[in-house]
Design goal:
The chain has about 300 residues and is an alpha+beta fold. The protein has 10 helices and 10 strands.
Length: about 300
């Protein structure tokens, strides 16, 4: 069926024995989903990470995408987010099976990722348009975590290191704790956000120039959405160069979206530190790039 040692390792890192069992039963699950949804499931896309994702054909010949993961709260909020967006700025959800952790999604063609667009200014402006298509006011009752819930990661970080900051610079963690509280207190009315709208999660499509995939689904002020975009920079060589990239991106996003530059840079810094912590918490490694982005954004915030 497939072989991906990296994919299997990631699943086991995240879910332990439950992940091993899920991997062993995945071929049976795929056959069952193919029968339920009347699909011909094709070989998976390359570079599987947290989910098994493969193109598939419906009986009418329509090309779709089958996405399957270990059932967990984040997968459930992805399904809820796609339903809420209903194709506005994002791929359509065709069907879902929450119990089995499966989604059937509109296949976006040509499907080129936004990070292939050049120059970087065009990438940021295209992403801003996708954001504006997606955002809708958050309903009073919803299934999504909030930005305040995400901020509890900082408490977990402190608890893990007995009040310290472990491998993360103390000045950054101190600044983000203060900044997070300040931004929350002064937040604009909340919207349902994508939550992970980086350049790899926006694809070229026929019905719109770019559409989003893989939402996490989170409720917060719209300015929060820019964080994932900021912490996925083009190639850079020095921290000074990275800070210049961040400053330019903050400026462009502020102009395109009408937010204060300070809020964009602040949320970017806060989410970069959280992203580094989540990498540590989930895998025990791989936080260095997010931390470098946080350090670069710290320079922007201080200016």
């Amino acid at each position: 069926m497939f072989r991906s040692d990296t994919f299997s390792q990631t699943i086991v890192e995240l879910y332990g024995e439950r992940g091993r069992l899920w991997l062993s039963e995945l071929p049976i699950l795929l056959d069952a989903l193919a029968a339920s949804w009347e699909l011909v499931v094709l070989p998976p896309f390359p570079s599987l990470t947290y989910h098994y994702v493969a193109p598939a054909l419906q009986t009418n010949g329509e090309s779709v995408v089958l996405k399957v993961g270990v059932p967990n709260p984040e997968l459930l909020t992805e399904i809820a987010a796609l339903r809420f967006f209903d194709g506005r700025g994002a791929a359509h959800l065709i069907a879902a099976d929450e119990r089995r952790g499966a989604l059937l999604i509109e296949r976006l063609t040509p499907g080129t990722a936004l990070h292939t667009l050049e120059p970087d200014d065009q990438t940021i402006l295209a992403a801003a348009l996708v954001m504006q298509q997606i955002w809708r006011p958050a309903p009073e009752q919803h299934p999504f975590p909030t930005i305040a819930d995400w901020g509890k990661g900082l408490t977990h970080l402190r608890r893990t290191f007995d009040g310290g900051s472990g491998p993360f610079p103390a000045a950054l963690v101190d600044a983000v704790e203060w900044l997070y509280a300040k931004l929350e207190r002064s937040s604009a009315p909340p919207a349902v956000l994508h939550g992970d709208l980086h350049q790899g999660n926006m694809l070229a499509a026929r019905r719109m120039p770019w559409l989003a995939i893989d939402p996490k689904g989170v409720v917060g002020e719209p300015a929060c959405e820019t964080g994932a975009l900021l912490r996925n920079p083009p190639p850079w060589r020095t921290l000074c160069e990275l800070a210049c990239i961040m400053e330019r991106r903050v400026y462009l996003l502020a102009e395109a979206l009408g937010f204060e530059r300070e809020r964009i840079a602040g949320w970017g810094l806060a989410q970069a530190v959280l992203s580094a912590w989540w990498s540590y918490e989930d895998h025990g490694h791989g936080w260095e790039e997010a931390l470098a982005c946080a350090e670069a954004l710290y320079r922007v915030v201080l200016r």
